[in-house]
Amino acid sequence: MKTKHFPEGFLWGGATAANQLEGAYNEGGKGLSIFDMVSFVPKEERGHDIEMDVKSDQELEELLAKKDEGNFPKRRGIDFYHRYKEDIALFAEMGFKTFRMSISWPRIFPNGDEREPNEEGLAFYDRVFDELAKYGIEPLVTLSHYEIPLHLVQKYNGWTDRRLVDFFVHYAETVFNRYKGKVNYWLTFNEINISTFSAYIGSGILVDRVEHKEQAVYQALHHQFVASARAVKACHEIIPGAMIGCMLARMEVYPETCSPDDVLAALEEDQKNLFFTDVQVRGYYPSFMRAYFKENNINIEMLPGDEEVLLNHTVDFLSFSYYMSMVASGSPEKIKEKGNFFTGIKNPFLETSDWGWQIDPKGLRVTLKKMYDRYQVPLFIVENGLGAYDKVEEDGSINDDYRIDYLRAHIEQMSEAIKEGVDLIGYTSWGCIDLISAGTSEMSKRYGFIYVDQDDYGNGTLERRKKKSFDWYKNVIASNGEVL
């Protein structure tokens, strides 16, 4: 199949996160992060897809007491820390124009509140960026991808404390100054809305310490909004010409029926999702969210100057993840049904992945058109992919046609959206190399074009092996999306 809609210079590539990729959690002066405390829970014991919360000091102390016992997959990743040259060479072979990665905040500031950075951590990313530059691959760097220094949780209860704004801005300014000749594309917070699902992972909050969870979460989010805006300001001052964006876990929501109750429920879910980008792209809190705060007894403490900072330092582009769409209903009984991931309602018109995520390529086109209509800024899809079980055949091949079909269908819809006027500047498929799942800490939930020989318990050689999708994506990039 052929398309001719992707612009010259379109940024094709792949996406990862330090906490799922690097490993070496106790090397190079790195401090512990919140994800280093998340242990593996087998699928049959979880009861739902996400298992990553730590809720209390007692739970945290018990995890710390285990030291190196137990199975903490985020600590080992896939050993990118030592194998980054091999992996980047494979990305270059696929023809990547960009590589989305994150800097581990506790690798630069082990506790998060120091004044002086850890030189070993800074030097590691120098080496990674130099290796990418060798192949002409543009880094797209996330400042905070679920990797809050654990010390900031223990001492401050994460982003509930206003002091984290200054700590984060100091960290951001440090890496901007260090890498200003090497990195031109930045993101502030990964999936900033995830705090409403996991207060611990999104904002470093131990919910047992707070009386009103929603109050704590939205206050923490306000601090992140301010920190993000101040990071945008610093980026523009330190690296003139750089682009810095925000990042949202996009949740396209359909009404279950044309009942006005269902339509209203879908609209309200959509507003809650887009609230985060409203603040970061438009620069102010929307009226519907102020009404929500009033109805739910949530009082956001703002300091003088906060609203001015948000308004004057909005992002240059909007990036987002897209994996599935969801269905909303005005009926409380429907919401309780077991169906799609995140919501209880299954869409009968869509297929479902091995992990219960409903596959909806056309929903990506809906999202692209809706978001561009709303914001009129460049868009960047920085996560999209299929988590699946992959089988290594006797001859060593991995025939992941299901992944190719998934990605092809989504790229086709991207092409249609561009044809219809959407300014889309890039696409980085999630988990371009197999890595540890964020939500479940599984290795068996694979997204990559490159197979990594490791199981859920850390067994394996870590050998890298190309899947069938490797050459397919190589041809997509080489043809600038014309040959799918």
UniProtKB/TrEMBL annotation:
Listed GO CC annotations:
cytosol
Give the domain of life: Bacteria
Q: What's one Pfam family here?
A: Glyco_hydro_1
InterPro entries attached to this UniProt entry:
GH, GH_1_N_CS, Glyco_hydro_1, Glyco_hydro_1_AS
Q: Name one GO biological process term.
A: carbohydrate catabolic process
What is the active site of this protein?
E383
Q: State a single Gene Ontology molecular function.
A: beta-glucosidase activity
Instruction: Write the record's keywords in alphabetical order, separated by commas.
Output: Glycosidase, Hydrolase
What the entry lists under SUPFAM superfamilies is as follows:
(Trans)glycosidases
Q: What NCBIfam families does the record point to?
A: PRK09589.1, PRK09593.1, PRK09852.1
Of which family is this protein a member? Belongs to the glycosyl hydrolase 1 family.
Q: What is this protein called?
A: 6-phospho-beta-glucosidase
Organism expressing this protein natively? Litchfieldia salsa
